[in-house]
Amino acid sequence: MTKILYRVHAVQRMFEREIAAGKVRKALEAADVIEDYSTEMPEPSRLIMGLQGKRPFHVVTSENPEANEITVVTVYLPDPNKWKKDFRSRK
Predict the structure, then answer these.
(1) Which of 30, 50, 81, 91 is most exposed, with minimal Cβ within 10 Å?
(2) Which regions of the chain does DSSP assign to beta strands (E)?
(3) Residue 69 resides in a domain
(4) Is this structure's pTM higher than 0.70?
């Protein structure tokens, strides 16, 4: 089983935005990857979409496959001015 680590920043943002840890975990399990930054970072990183009710949120992760760990870097609500209606594609 993959270990999930949360950076302090991510926990603060989840609290501010009222996004439950269980919803973040479900998003990670579903792995609905909307952007892959693996070629840009030293560790594989991804932008994953999740839902809390009908409200979409994005999770930025960094992965360490050797340690079987995923680090949640931040969690945010996508800005409708920057994302298309599906919140999966940038404008």
Answers:
(1) 81
(2) 3-6, 33-36, 45-52, 55-64, 69-76
(3) no
(4) yes
